[in-house]
Amino acid sequence: MIKPLEWLMSRFSVDMGIDLGTANTLVAVRDRGIVLDEPSVVAVQAGTKKVLLDGNAVGDAAIEYIGRTPPKFQAIRPMKSGVIADFEITEKMLRYFIRKVQPSRHFVKPQVVIAVPWGITPVEKRAVIGSAERAGARRVYLIDEPTAAALGAQIPVHEPQGHMVVDIGGGTSEVAVISLANVVEAVCLRVAGDDFNDAIAHYIRAKYNLLIGEITSERLKIAAASAMPLEEELEVEIRGRDSLTGLPRRAIVTSIDLREALSEPIRKILDAIKSVLERTPPELSADLVQTGITMCGGGSLLRGLPELIERETELPTRIASNPLEAVARGTGIFLEGLDLYSRFLEGGDDAV
């Protein structure tokens, strides 16, 4: 239960929920919804932890540095596969985002709810909590991403009924069956959007002898990639460096190429979904025939992926409204009902 002093302090702070993602960080604030959505990228001087632009080369200000920096600069993604890969840079990134959302005129530090991948280790959880506290949080709670995504997708998680959530983010894919606000069965698969980009880049190099960067792979995925054949296949012109001559050149890539490139990571996600379904208790499996699968995260927007999952599982499959924001909205819902939800949270004094 939230103490009176804690409630009073919350009136004078900008408490926030954070989806600390591998690709993007989203922040939700009570009564304001999503107030920040920026890349989880920090630009630093190479060989140091000094952030460029007087400490402001973070998020939107840093994304254009990726793949374009001279040797003395470096663009870093401090999150990898949904967990912290660089503690110091993550702390600086969090501090920047927290200060951007809560201006310095607020004297009370914020309470923060952070979504983390299901099944991460206690050491990884403590690392997230410690980084957030050092970045300026008064109190930190952790919530697993499947539960946050389900709340953000407006799934009635508190009912004694099974619901499946598939959240395909940048670094991880979360597959979970939820009932009574708890994860019953789940898999955290470290195959997601970034792996889609890597698979595309490797395929383009193997077939076209063309080297492309991370940003080009991402744009190519959005423009033409699909999980199933399209009524009208797409073509996209790309530019990169010839792996044989070393010279810049162009190539035409089709949606058929991209579908072949993504076949392996998509198959791994399908196998993860089936493995969770196979372990789900019979009564909850019966519920899923009606409630189906809800998809969240940027990966859910891949053309034909919901239809492919529905065909493979024979369960109704839908994409949540604003799937990219589902987890962040879920952290905001938890934040607004901390007294109600505290027994489901992890971290701080209310750890389960």
Written description of the protein model:
This protein is of the alpha/beta class. It has four domains: 1-38 and 83-153 and 323-339, ATPase, nucleotide binding domain (Nucleotidyltransferase, domain 5), CATH 3.30.420.40; 41-76, no CATH class; 154-191 and 267-322, 2-Layer Sandwich (Nucleotidyltransferase, domain 5); 193-263, Actin, Chain A, domain 4. Helices cover 39% and strands 25% of the residues. The strands form five sheets. A five-stranded mixed β-sheet has the order 3-2-1-8-9, sandwiched between helices. Strand 2 and strand 3 (33-39) form a beta hairpin. Helix 4 (87-101) crosses helix 5, helix 6 crosses helix 13 and helix 7 packs across helix 8 (214-224). The longest helix has 17 residues, at 263-279. The protein starts with a helix and ends in an 11-residue tail after the last helix.
Summarize the SSE layout with pairings.
Elements: H1 4-11, E1 16-20, E2 24-29, E3 33-39, E4 42-45, H2 52-55, H3 60-63, E5 73-76, E6 79-80, E7 83-84, H4 87-101, E8 111-116, H5 122-134, E9 139-144, H6 145-152, E10 163-168, E11 173-179, E12 182-189, H7 193-208, E13 210-211, H8 214-224, E14 235-242, E15 248-254, H9 255-261, H10 263-279, H11 282-291, E16 293-296, H12 305-313, E17 317-319, H13 326-336, H14 338-341
